[in-house]
Amino acid sequence: TDTFGMVVLEAQTLGLPALVSLQGGPQEIILNGKTGYALDTGLTDGWVDTCRTLLEARLRSPASYEAWRGEIREAFARRPTWRDLIDDITEKGARPAEPAAQGPAATDGLPPSFSRRLSPRPSITLPASR
Description:
Blueprint: H1 6-13, E1 18-21, E2 36-39, H2 44-60, H3 62-77, H4 82-91
Parallel strand pairs: 1-2
Helix pairs in contact: 2-3
């Protein structure tokens, strides 16, 4: 089983319901019954029935199916981001470091954008291309 399931994330960005196994990580990514379905690997009939139901729903009511796809995209867009995670960590116990002194010695020779100190609102700055 895939431990994270990039294909599940890709499906959700496109508004497609993901069918995943109850074993492994992808079941943690979907909202069962809303953005996809988590099914027991041993129940082949359940997989077939779910696929059939999804295909029939798309054919029976394309407008409703497309509305559902929009809901899946919206649910995916509301998921926490890395920024949310970092903000949550820094707000719950990590103390920001004192402002670093300027110059190469303060950052171990790294440019300031690569400083190793913890800040309450970290940002990533890519170095300019040469």
